[in-house]
User: What shape does this take?
Amino acid sequence: MRMIRAAILFALGATLVCAPARADYVPSFKGNDTGGMIAYPLARQVDARQLAVDHCAYYGKVAKFLGVDPQYGGYVSFACRWVPYGTYQRPIVTKY
Assistant: This one.
């Protein structure tokens, strides 16, 4: 019984030691139904406005940009708001 426990602990320890931690990985685009963030290097390569609009339209909302931090490691932040009053239709989702 002790040999089995020792073998399991050894296998678990070897797995934890050999597996990469991946603690430094941050996605370049992250968001939910309340808003999100786009990494500044990605925002310079693609249309960040269209990314945010498509993301918010998936939840039936419109995008409002909050701020830009234009430096290495910076980001573009946006909020997803409900469709403004007076409109009776959902935002259009671009599919291409």
Remarks:
- Residues 27-82 form one domain.
